[in-house]
Automatic annotation (TrEMBL):
The lineage of its organism: Bacteria, Bacillati, Actinomycetota, Actinomycetes, Kitasatosporales. Residues 315-373 form the Cas12f1-like TNB domain. This is RNA-guided endonuclease InsQ/TnpB family protein. It comes from the Bacteria. Keywords: DNA recombination, DNA-binding, Endonuclease, Hydrolase, Nuclease, Transposition. In the C-terminal section; belongs to the transposase 35 family. InterPro entries: Cas12f1-like_TNB, Transposase. Transmembrane segments: none annotated. GO terms for molecular function: endonuclease activity.
Length: 400
């Protein structure tokens, strides 16, 4: 359990800016990406070989290997060492996380979530630089290796950045994401609490009718246009060994534009809603819902369009930014418990049953509204009428 940031406490945040990249700088960045991608693939190969031999392959061993690779390969030595070292850190972090999350005795290369090879043309270029690998001078970004980039300063950097991530999106636009120290910006106290339950029909159902987030359907609205460009791509798809035609590249770019627009619409909707919730409530009890399993169900497309994960992420970030207290509530049995008396039904409710009727106190309420009240009860923010809490339930934890 972590505690919320007090007013004025310093934390870390990201400030992202668009980059104006010349053809020379673009070639240099892609060259650096080819080198770091090669280092990543070498780490994957060495990790698999070490696992097969029953040996450890930690960051210290990979660092020594990097020194040897740079000594043997002049092409690798032409690039800066900072992004190559950082790609090893990223690999180690990804491998450690996968080993903690994955259970079973499947072979290493067959385990879902384990680091895999980055293929040219499929993996998006990403370069990480620590403070010794870049500098800001004359409003330009200078990277190790003599790469100079023009930054579109859309807002002021609050402090000197400690690191920067250079990446390219699906449209070919380059961005710089700086990590800086930021202070909490407290909002006026309201002495109010809200419970939030995630869903598909309504992205967020809350204990306040004025703060429910309806399913915006940005993806379904753009489906017709996206289908058109995907059909164009299918007709122009080159055969194996043939070069990509201009028509295929045009259709692929148009499809990428639609995807980018939908992603920005979802992010904008989530941020505006999160700011409104954080401004009106001091304490937030949020369902710690992991919608990944929905991708394998018949609701995969609609759940993806609801963007529950990104909305939850924006809400957590907004609460952290403004010093609000946010509790993540375990979702187990939240649809079976009564938000008024704490009683639990004898059986799990089917999805078709949208009204919750308590057999103990006789309370009748919409299913999602009842779950939102359960969030408040689990977090210890009992609403009016919640005089009992079912013992033995998973505890809520403070996320912010």
């Amino acid at each position: 359990m972590t505690t919320p940031h007090p007013s004025g406490e310093v934390g870390h945040g990201r400030y992202t800016y668009r980059l104006r990249v010349s053809s020379t700088a673009s070639r240099s960045l892609l060259g650096e990406w080819d080198r770091t991608r090669w280092v990543w693939n070498q780490c994957v190969a060495e990790s698999r070989a070490a696992h097969k031999a029953g040996q450890a392959c930690g960051p210290a061993r990979l660092d020594k290997m990097l020194t040897g690779w740079r000594g043997e390969c002049a092409w690798l030595r032409e690039g800066a060492s900072v992004p190559q070292q950082q790609i090893i850190r990223d690999f180690t972090k990804a491998r450690t996380k996968a080993l903690k999350d994955i259970k079973g005795r499947l072979p290493l290369r067959q385990r879902a979530g384990m680091p895999r090879f980055k293929k040219k043309g499929l993996a998006k270029p990403t370069l990480n630089y620590t403070q010794r690998g870049f500098r800001l001078k004359d409003n330009r970004l200078h990277l190790a290796g003599g790469i100079e980039l023009t930054v579109v300063w859309s807002r002021h950097l609050p402090t000197v950045p400690s690191s920067v991530r250079i990446y390219r999106d699906s449209l070919g636009h380059w961005y710089a994401s700086f990590v800086v120290l930021t202070e909490t910006q407290p909002l006026p106290a309201t002495d109010r609490a809200i419970g939030i339950d995630w869903g598909v029909k309504e992205t967020a159902t809350t204990t306040s009718d004025n703060h429910d987030l309806l399913h915006a359907g940005h993806g379904s609205k753009a489906a017709c246009e996206l289908t058109r460009y995907q059909k164009m791509m299918a007709r122009r798809k080159p055969k194996r060994g043939q070069a990509i035609s201009k028509g295929y590249r045009t259709a692929r770019r148009q499809a990428a534009k639609v995807h980018k627009k939908v992603a920005r619409q979802r992010q904008d909707t989530a941020r505006k809603w999160a700011k409104r919730v954080v401004s009106d409530f001091d304490q937030l009890a949020v369902e710690d819902f992991r919608p990944k399993f929905l991708t394998k169900s018949t609701m995969a497309r609609k759940s993806a369009d609801a963007a529950i994960s990104s909305t939850k992420h924006e809400l957590i970030n907004m609460a952290r930014k403004h010093g609000r207290t946010l509790y993540l509530v375990h979702p187990a049995h939240t649809t079976m418990d009564c938000g008024h008396c704490g009683a639990r039904t004898k059986h799990a409710l089917p999805l078709s049953e949208r009204t919750y009727t308590c057999t103990a106190c006789g309370a009748i309420s919409p299913r999602d509204k009842n779950s939102a009240h359960v969030m408040l009860v689990r977090a210890g923010l009992n609403p009016a009428g919640a005089d009992r809490v079912r013992p033995g339930g998973p505890p809520a934890r403070q996320a912010v």
